[in-house]
Amino acid sequence: MRFSTITAAGLLASGVSANLHELAVAAGKKYFGTATDNSELTDTAYVEILKDAKMFGQITPGNGQKWQFTEKSQGVFSYTSGDEIADFAKTNSKLLRCHTLVWHSQLPTWVSSGTWTKEQLTSIIDTHISNVAGHYKGQCYAWDVVNEALNEDGTYRDSVFYKVLGTDFIPIAFKAAAAADADAKLYYNDYNIELAGNKQKEVLNIIKNIKDSGARIDGLGLQAHLIVGSAGSRSALSAVLQSYVDAGVTEVAYTELDIRHKAIPADTAAQEQQATDYVSVVGACLDIAECVGVTIWDYTDKYSWIPSVFPGTGEALPWDKDLKPKPAYTSISSLLAAAGKGGAAPATSAPAVATSAAAAVTTSAAAAAPTSESAAAEPSVPAAEPSVPESSAPAAPVTTPKASIPAATPAPATTLSTVVKSKCGGGATAEAASSAPAAAATGGAARWAQCGGNGFTGSTTCQSGLTCQKQNDYYSQCV
């Protein structure tokens, strides 16, 4: 089915809701959601859209549940930031995707710089997960148990966890999470695993190894930090989702979706391509019954991590910096409405949607050249993946038959307090982390924003009351 401006306008004019979560549920998905962060909850206009349970049925905390903030000193736990987001989710009738328990970045130095035996580090992981996941027991629909364990070539990151425990740290974490919260869905989460490649293949091995160890893994999270024109075709994306299901997880999800422009401001043609790419990704989720939902990595360009990490790029989200919906939003809502055979309720509270040609989604049969750009942030945000999406979207969800996965050249990517992968001199890959929002217009970077690291060119000072704290050689953050 070809989506055009007329299609979008017709669906909305006919009384179809433009509320994304409502439409996603009508199309058979569990949720459509967004990430958020504590500092953003002071923005009244932003919160008005965020709290609408018909628009977003799920939220993910960008930073507040990470190790650096929950156990800054060994054995001393704090849940203030995480609780604020959890309480917001409960008050506004949203599922909470909890994020994250074990990750190589945003670790307190007592963990990352410690000299541990296997027994000691195993106990540290067990204690951390028992306390944090135990604290949020009953509140989390899902946990990202382990985040970004792999390098771009499918080898393992040289983290403190891998150095001491090898690959065993992953099943250790999953066993601890299952013991702490038996009802939460347990996910492995990573970027640049949306298309076939070495990294995607190693994720299949991770799933197998967890299951072989006797631990439980329920889901696979694909961050999907992509680049306009290189997101991958709907069929290629669907095939990779299916590969994870075939490996033994019961659900998959796009967990940190954004699709950035290489140059901004984006012109009409670029906005149309971005809309096409969003249709490919959301459409792939519609095609696979086990894909439970899509989470965008914040919903507005106002709070995107990308500009601070990749200067000159961005405008990656369905709402612009003024909280107005863009062509990508129109195309997503049109796709979901068609898949749900009319959607749910009248569009009485839906945001106004521009009717310019930029709102159209055009079918593209051309293949895009693979990109090697990388994005990162944990926020961790992955970069683009090759091949131009196909957007011949079916009118209703269709389960894609098991098929061979098209070959694709993987590109690096990222997460919300985001750790970004960027290519440095000599082809070496370095990590830089950024968190949205970035530097404020007045007097330094805001809370969670990047303020230093190898290759970082942004503001190295923080707003009053915050300090620039080094996480690793490539990333310092205002806290």
Automatic annotation (TrEMBL):
Which residue ranges run through the membrane? none
Cross-referenced InterPro entries: CBD, CBD_sf, GH, GH10, GH10_dom
**Domain CBM1 span(s) in chain numbering:** 443-479
Q: State what protein this is by name.
A: Beta-xylanase
* PANTHER family cross-referenced by the UniProt entry: ENDO-1,4-BETA-XYLANASE, GLYCOSYL HYDROLASE
GO terms under biological process: xylan catabolic process
Q: What class of enzyme is it?
A: hydrolase
Task: Spell out the subcellular localization from the entry.
Answer: Secreted
Q: Which residues form the signal peptide?
A: 1-18
Gene Ontology molecular functions: cellulose binding; endo-1,4-beta-xylanase activity
- EC number(s) given by UniProt: 3.2.1.8
Listed pathway(s) = Glycan degradation; xylan degradation
| Family per record | Belongs to the glycosyl hydrolase 10 (cellulase F) family.
Keyword annotations of the record: Carbohydrate metabolism, Glycosidase, Hydrolase, Polysaccharide degradation, Secreted, Signal, Xylan degradation
Where are the residues of the annotated region Disordered?
371-412
Q: Which organism is it from?
A: Colletotrichum costaricense
Asked if Hydrolase is a keyword of the record, the answer is: yes
Q: Can you state which reaction this protein catalyses?
A: Endohydrolysis of (1->4)-beta-D-xylosidic linkages in xylans
Q: Where is the GH10 domain?
A: 17-335
User: What is the superkingdom listed in this entry's lineage?
Assistant: Eukaryota
